[in-house]
Prior knowledge:
alpha+beta; twelve-stranded mixed β-sheet
Amino acid sequence: MVDASAWAALARGGSFFQTLAWADVCAAGIGPQARSVFLCGFEGDGLWAGLPAVITRRLGQRSFFSMPYGTYGGILFAPEVGAERRREFVLRLNDFLRAERFAQVEITDFEGSLAGGSAYPLVRVALSTHVIPLSAEAEYHPPDKKIEGHLRTGRKTGAEIVAVEQDTLDDFYELYRRTEVRHGRKKPRYHRRMFEQVWRLLSGTGMLYWNGLLVEGRLAGSQISFIFGETLFSWQTVSDYDLRQYKPNHLLLDDAIRYGLGRGVRRVNLGGSPEGAAGLREYKERWGGQAVMYDAYSYRSRWHRLVRR
C-alpha cells in the first residue's frame, strides 16, 4: 500500500486525477471488477516517481488505465529527478506492461512524461483540451458578448444556484442519462455508482464543487468540478433540454469559475471535446478557453479488438 502522505507530496505538482482520492473514486465507482494500483520508484524511503492506475477485468482479460474515462493520469516525478532517472522509470514501466500482458492499456500523458520513451507497443494519440487562464487581480468576464448575453438572460429568470445534496442524486442521474442520449450515446458512460462514490469520497475534502440550478424546485442542470492546486477542472455538466431557456450550462460554469477564483484558482480546464464536436470547441473558446495539446498512449490486443467490434 502506498504511503498516503508520500504520494500526496509527489502529486502536489500534478493534477487532481493523479491523487489517491480519484483512484479510490474510480475503483469504487467502476465496481468490484476494478482495483487501483500505484507503480512507484523509491530510493531508500523516498518516493521519487509514481504512476497511478486502475486495473479492470472483463471476460477474464485485464485492462490498465491511467486514468480511466480519458481523465489525466501519467507519471509523476519529484522536481529534482533528472532525465536519466526518468528514462529508467519509463523503461521499467515498459517492462511491467509487457510482463502483465494486458488486453488494453490507456495512459493519458498530460505532462509529456512519456514523450520519446514509450517503447512498449503503445500508439500515440494527440488530444486537446481548453483551458481558461484567470487573473488573481481581476474578476472574470467571458470575452464573448454572446456568452455575457446568455448569462444576463439566465440571471433574469430567477433560477437558483444551489449546492447539490445527496438526496438529489436520482434527479442528477436522470439528467445525466438524458444528456448522454442527447449527445448520441447508446449507453451512459458512467453507472450511477460512479457519482455516488464522487459524493461519498470527495464531499468535505475541498476538492469537489458540485452545483445545480433549480427552477421552481426542479433540477434544470448540474455541474461537477474538481479543484486541485490552482486548477478547477470542469468534469461533468448535465442539463434539462426542456429548460434550456434558463441557461443552466452558462450559469453553472460562471458560478464555478467565481467559486474557483475565491479559492485561488488560476486556470479552468474545460476538458476535452469528442471528435467532430466543433460546436463544443467553439463554445469553450467563447468562454476564453485556449486549446492545449497533449498526448495519450494506447494498446489493444487482438482479442480486445475482436471483442470490441
